[in-house]
Amino acid sequence: MSFTLTTPSGFWNPLFWVIFLALFGLISYLIYLRGNPSYKKESDQVKPYLSGNIEPTKEKVQVKAGDIYWGFIEALKGYYKVLEAIHTGDIRDYILWYLGVGAIITFILIGGV
User: Fold this and answer.
1) H or E stretch including 7?
2) How confident is the prediction for the chain on average, in pLDDT?
3) What pLDDT sits at residue 49?
4) Cα dihedral 44→50→52→56 (10° resolution)
5) Which domain of life is it from (predicted)?
6) Residue partners of 4: CB distance under 8 A and separation at least 6
């Protein structure tokens, strides 16, 4: 019984993979053993190095949702200025806009403009 799968581009054998994983695990374990024994997880050693500067608070380094879209909003500032000018918050205005745009689209589709 052969475990080798032969394809036009090569072969695959699960025994080679098991040997490779065992060898990889052994090498990883040897590297782990050579690590620094004075390392302590619960000390200042786990803090990020910021060129000697004090680590800022999480609130100062946190990216807010508004910051994510800053470039998009800044690039379309003129468009948003127009939208803010016509934005009333009244549902009747939105329905009027909806019906107006729907009438224009219907006119274009039926009229063949």
Assistant:
1) strand 5-7
2) 89
3) 86
4) -80
5) Archaea
6) 11, 12, 13
Low-confidence ranges of the chain (pLDDT < 50): none
Using one digit for the tens of pLDDT, what is the confidence trace for 77-98?
Answer: 999 999 888 888 899 999 999 9
Q: What is the pLDDT of residue 56?
A: 87
Q: Which residues pair with 6 in a beta bridge?
A: 11
Residues 6+ apart with CB under 8 A from 13: 3, 4, 5
Residue 42 inside a domain? The answer is no
Q: Please say whether the dihedral angle defined by the alpha carbons of residues 7, 11, 15 and 19, taken in this order, is positive or negative.
A: negative
Task: Report the alpha-carbon distance of residue 73 to residue 14 in Å, rounded.
Answer: 54
User: In this predicted structure, what is the pLDDT of residue 65?
Assistant: 82
* 13 CB neighbour count, 10 Å cutoff: 13
Within a domain: 89: yes
Q: Is residue 36 part of a domain?
A: no
